[in-house]
Specification:
This protein is of the alpha+beta class. The protein has helices spanning 35-43, 73-76, 106-119, 135-148, 163-171, 216-219, 273-282, and strands at residues 63-69, 89-95, 126-129, 152-156, 189-193, 196-200, 231-235, 239-243, 247-254, 256-261, 268-272, 294-300, 305-310, 314-319, 322-328, 334-338. It is built from seven helices and 16 strands. A hairpin with a 3-residue loop joins strand 8 (239-243) and strand 9 (247-254).
């Protein structure tokens, strides 16, 4: 009888001992962690994991749970995941709402998500706002899943959305690794919630996130983990704001009210628009610098409030009327959409 293949209990990759460069390598095939997960846990060194770019095959009559960080809402509007509703029951878990300040209206957030989903034809059966680190939210999710009486439940979504944190809380799994490392889960992990099969799937690929440009020990310090403290301001024509060396916003014409949501340790600096690119390129202020920068101009209408989604590390809310220029690496994921949540502007 052929011996069953061991899998890393951290990322799910098949353990192998013959190719150091391949996923799942360990010094011996009887190890419980692959070498990459072992190094990640003990030394903070991250390498060797990959992103799938296709959805897994789901069992018939399954419940599909799309997990998205509240920071990634822009990606849901154009993702191929939105067509899953044709064949399965699909619910959306909007995770990490704990990042938003307490004064944020959850009802307005939910209403705006539903409005955008309708505009972009994103099909769904239900939308749930939650925090994977909130025990009450996890218990509510358990009750929801058990009441639906599905035999198989799949957690899908982009990397670092919180799928594995939710999976561990639902199933009692203590081994799967939860760190801000993109593409950590390598294959489907499975567990039980009473008589329900829960599957944690590898994070789907989204180009332009920080892990493509920065080493793990750098970008993990930029990704938000605690509640944002909004930074309010006004930018006039020819003003600019530079954020962490990663992105700059210059005002070409008009006046822009802005609210910045990033991790506390991500510095920002105000400058004049004609100096913004030079400051970023010469790394005069920030710890992070890209090898090149490009820009794109946007027109902000006066009847809308917008949010600029800055890869996977933050959001900049802006309003016009104005014409603005976003400066960033040409391949960094940056999007401009109508704002999803209420602005927290005390005084400007």
């Amino acid at each position: 009888m052929q011996k069953s293949m061991n899998r890393c209990i951290g990322c799910g990759a098949a353990i192998q001992s013959h190719d150091k460069e391949a996923v799942g390598y360990a010094k011996s095939s009887d190890q419980v962690f692959c070498q990459n997960c072992f190094r990640l846990m003990h030394y903070g060194k991250a390498e060797g994991h990959f992103h799938p770019d296709e959805l897994p095959t789901f069992k018939k009559d399954s419940l599909i749970v799309v997990v998205s960080s509240v920071l990634y809402l822009d990606t849901l509007l154009t993702s191929p995941v939105k067509r899953l509703n044709d064949d399965y029951k699909v619910i959306y878990l909007i995770n990490q709402i704990d990042l938003l300040p307490d004064a944020t209206s959850k009802s307005i957030l939910l209403g705006n998500i539903k409005k955008r989903f309708k505009e972009f034809r994103v099909a769904y059966d239900e939308i749930i706002l939650m925090s994977a680190i909130n025990p009450y939210d996890i218990e509510e999710l358990k009750s929801y899943i058990l009441n639906k009486r599905y035999e198989d439940v799949y957690l899908i979504g982009l990397q670092n959305s919180g799928k594995t944190t939710i999976f561990k809380s639902l199933t009692g799994n203590k081994d799967a690794i939860v760190l801000p490392k993109a593409a950590l889960t390598q294959t489907i992990l499975s567990g039980k919630l009473e008589n329900v099969n829960i599957y944690d799937t590898p994070g789907l690929y989204q180009s332009g996130y920080l892990h493509e440009f920065l080493p793990y020990d750098v970008y993990k310090e930029i990704l938000p983990t605690k509640q944002f403290k909004p930074r309010n301001g006004i930018l006039e024509t020819d003003d600019a704001i530079l954020i962490g060396g990663i992105l700059g916003l210059s005002v070409i014409k008009g006046t822009v009210k802005s609210v910045l949501y990033v991790k506390d340790n991500v510095k920002h600096q105000l400058s004049k628009a004609d100096k913004a690119l030079s400051i970023l390129e010469k790394n005069q202020v920030f710890d992070v610098v890209f090898e090149k920068y490009g820009y794109k101009d946007y027109v902000l209408k006066d009847d809308k409030k917008y949010q600029i989604t800055m890869a996977d590390f933050g959001i900049l809310q802006v309003t016009g009327p104005a014409t603005v220029r976003v400066i960033a690496h040409p391949k960094l994921h940056v999007s401009l959409t109508e704002g999803f949540f209420r602005w927290l502007i005390k005084s400007i």
